[in-house]
Write a structure and sequence with these properties.
- The strands form 2 sheets. The protein has a 5-stranded antiparallel sheet with strand order 1-10-9-6-7. Strands 2-3-4-5-8 form a 5-stranded antiparallel sheet, with helices on one face.
- It has 7 helices and 10 strands.
- The longest helix has 18 residues.
- The chain folds into 2 domains: 222 residues, PPM-type phosphatase domain (Phosphatase 2c, domain 1, 4-Layer Sandwich); 44 residues, no CATH class.
- β2 and β3 form a beta hairpin.
- The protein starts with a strand and ends in a 7-residue tail after the last strand.
- The protein is α+β, with helices and mostly antiparallel strands and 278 residues long.
- Bound molecules: zinc ion (ZN).
- The site of zinc ion has 5 residues, from loops.
- Zinc ion (ZN) binds next to loops.
Length: 278
């Protein structure tokens, strides 16, 4: 398998909370969920530590194990929890969390897993790539997010709506009927979307954090097919360049209302999954 990737923080001064890693047979992408401004957590490590520690553990496991991907993820979540449950208060429900995408080639199969709102594009040569994304989070939070966006930042009403939004996120996270993300509860792994396809059918696979997928699913400036073509031709960094260009053209979010002007953005592109040129 050949893998190229690019990953950039929202701004140069901001630590990148996305994690990307790959071997010749596996790739992982995690998007750490930033804590809202003013919210403190019972964990002293932070989101970047969480996404990078879990991501590195998953990558190591993927090269050693042929177990189903949800089992590897569940064990990874348990291990990271054990690394800080004695020093941090993980009972408050605001522990660091991350979305997860895993890809593994074993023998003649390609296995994938997607947890929460990162995106996996599976290009089998069909007219449209298969798009895998768990959008429970976005469905659940849309009304509350729309309320926040309709209010003027800096006003008491905006602050109150923001507080309610953050409370809702904490209420829905890793609960039945809510949304699931990697944090401290290994049951989240059972909620991931998974699949397996013969390697010979796969031309390429792209893994995207939502900071990169927004060119399509928020800005509507490209189709998924165009993104696969762009990354294939110019590399993953080109996708992020185009996202940043769109963001710069709308710094106040007037055209595309969004919580953060820019977000950490990562794109991974895998080809030659069958061991020969597609
Ligand atoms: Zn901690």
């Amino acid at each position: 398998m050949r893998v190229t990737f690019a990953s950039e923080p929202a701004t140069p001064a901001h630590p990148n909370e996305d994690f990307v890693g790959a071997t010749a047979d596996a790739a992982v992408l995690l998007d750490g969920a930033s804590a809202p401004a003013g919210v403190t957590s019972g964990c002293s490590h932070g989101v970047r530590w969480y996404s990078h520690t879990l991501g590195a553990l998953l990558l190591a496991e993927l090269t050693e194990s042929t177990e189903p991907l949800p089992e590897i993820l569940a064990r990874g979540i348990e291990r990271v929890t054990s690394l800080h449950q004695d020093t941090c208060d993980l009972s408050r429900g605001d522990s660091p969390s991350a979305t997860v995408v895993m890809l593994r080639r074993t023998g003649d199969r390609v296995d994938w897993l997607v947890l929460c709102d990162s995106v996996l594009l599976l290009d089998t040569g069909a007219a449209e790539p298969t798009v895998v994304c768990d959008d429970r989070l976005n469905h659940l939070l849309k009304p509350s997010r729309d309320r926040v966006r309709a209010l003027e930042p800096g006003t008491p009403e905006h602050a109150e709506a923001m507080r309610e939004h953050v409370a809702l996120v904490n209420e829905c996270r890793n609960r039945d009927g809510g949304f699931w993300v990697a944090s401290t509860d290994p049951r989240a792994a059972e909620e991931a979307l998974t699949g397996s396809v013969p390697a010979e059918k796969v031309r390429a696979v792209a893994l995207l954090s939502d900071g990169a997928s927004r060119l399509v699913d928020r800005f509507h400036l490209a189709t998924w097919r165009e993104v696969v073509g762009m990354v294939d031709r110019y590399g993953p960094a080109e996708l992020i360049r185009r996202v940043r260009r769109a963001e710069r053209s709308d710094p106040d979010g007037k055209r595309w209302p969004r919580g953060k002007p820019s977000d950490d953005a990562s794109a991974v592109y895998c080809t030659h999954l069958n061991g020969h040129r597609p």
